[in-house]
Amino acid sequence: MNMITKIRKTLSNERGSLLLISYLVVVVLLGIGATFLVLITGESRVAERQRLTTTAFHIAEAGLERGLYELKEDFINASGVPSWADGDINGYTIGPDTANFYNIPYSSTSFNGGSYTVSLLNVLGSVDDVWLRSVGTVNGVSHTLEVYVKMVSLSPWDYAIFAGKGASGSMVNGNVDIRGSVLILGEDLDPGDYAIDLGGTAEIVGNNYAGLDSSLLAKVPALPTTTFNGETVNTLNAELRVKKGIVGVSGSSSVGQADVSGNADKETVDGVFVNEGFGGNQGTNNVYSDNGTSSAYDLGDAVIFPSLSSPYPGYATYQDYLKANALILTNELTSITPNSNFSYSDAKGSISMDGAGNMTISGIVYVDGSNNLNMAMAGSNTTITYSGTGSIVVTGNAQIDVNLITGGSNSFPSNIMGIMTPNDIGFNAASIDAMGVFYAENSIVVQKQTDIMGTIVSNYFNMGTNVPAIYQVPETTNNLPPGLIGADSRWYLVVAWLKI
Fold it and tell me: Are residues 232 and 197 in the same domain?
């Protein structure tokens, strides 16, 4: 066999090739298996990390809910004007601090195998705005949640004007000066209707007591202060909320006023929250608000207009509850003047006058039989000065055409009268002052130049053309008279979420 033949035989010999191919397949499979193992291990680690992150998120949520509870309870249980800037948060002596977050010192923060830390940061110049942060941690993995919290009152008596459903057309019209917060539901307004239609020199949601007569100013507590643009100024913390309806601003009328530096008052309003925007020939040009003009109504369906015909535990209606817990009169109050002299009382309520213009009231007084309440002047005697804390429920209408004020310095609302009716309340005398809280389920009409200190609540308002003024008194809600409708509606947390 020659050399060429031997080479050909060697090259054509296939013995052992299958083994080599097998080795190659094994190597490839081992490589693929190792790759899968690495991927599976990585995915397992990612899945575990995701699981821990999700758990940390829920732990942070638990801490957040606990912090929100503390904030709400702090307002609910406050003995005076509630505040998140008074160094006490629901019994914890902490804060305030507008530069750094400070922890709520919980004794136990364990939850779902991990723990949370809850901290607060105050907002400069505000007692009812705060940042709330919660950090949830489990097995070294943390998740942070941060929210901006604002406390808003649901009570109709925390406003200068609280307006209900209304009817076709505007709900608040005329040339009126409203100092304090305004809330309008307007749920029965048609599309394109005005909830507020202001003209002339009207100002709605003024944030101070500018223009208030000095004799009335002396009867009410000093306004709280805040820091605004580096100045300490008096403020009503006024806000405008309109759920349905357009806010019409025409002529020289305005919502708030432009900031003026160097004085003791805050002119701009703290915020406006209006779903359907602004109209009139000025519109947003004459709106001076710290949050601009584009924020929508922020209370959802949490606020409802209180009705005397609504059911009440143990009674068919709230009005039935009032009647069952009141001194019952019929026509005894249909003609009251400063010269009136009478006294009616029982264990549930009392009302009296001494013939010299002085009235004393306590408890609940119920005027039955669709009779009216009428208060009027008697010649040159134009003033009824009252003391005590009480409510008058009128089944007919109420007409206040006399000065109805408290006596002495800082006498309101430690002395306070409430008037309630399912019908109408009118203030139709010229240049009178009325101090109290007034509820008319149908309408309130103020035809002439009247100053009202307190709060008016109704489904519809007619403010006429003679520039009446309504001045909110912040301390009113801490001194409400007995039986006042809606007095048990208090606080609602508005929360803006921020996931970090």
Answer: yes
pLDDT digits (tens, 9 = 90+) for 234-244: 999 999 999 99
Same domain as 285, residue 259: yes
- Confidence category of residue 326, pLDDT binned at 50, 70, 90: very high
Burial label, 266 (beta-carbon count in 10 A; 0-12, 13-18, 19+): buried
Please count the structural domains in the chain. 2
In a domain, 28, yes or no: no
Q: Residue 30's pLDDT is what?
A: 73
- Pairing type for strands 398-401 and 327-329 reads unpaired
Q: Which of 243-252, 295-304, 431-440 has the highest mean pLDDT?
A: 431-440
Distance between CA atoms of residues 243 and 188, nearest Å? 11
Between 200-204, 212-216, 299-303, 415-419, the lowest mean confidence (pLDDT) is in 200-204
Parallel/antiparallel/unpaired status of strands 141-153 and 129-138: antiparallel
One domain, residues 277 and 215: yes
Res 346 pLDDT > 90: yes
Residues 85, 68: one domain? yes
Q: Does 240 share its domain with 378?
A: yes
- Please compute the mean of the pLDDT values over residues 211-220 and round it to a whole number: 94
Claim to verify: residue 311 and residue 422 sit in the same structural domain = yes
Q: Supply the range of the domain harboring residue 366.
A: 156-493
Extract the tokens encoding 421: 């009716």
**Residues 145, 175 within the same domain:** no
**Residues contacting residue 319 through CB under 8 Å, at least 6 positions apart:** 308, 309, 393, 422
Residue 436 to residue 423: CA distance in whole angstroms: 18
Same domain, 92 and 197: no
- DSSP symbol at 390: E
First to last CA, the chain: 85
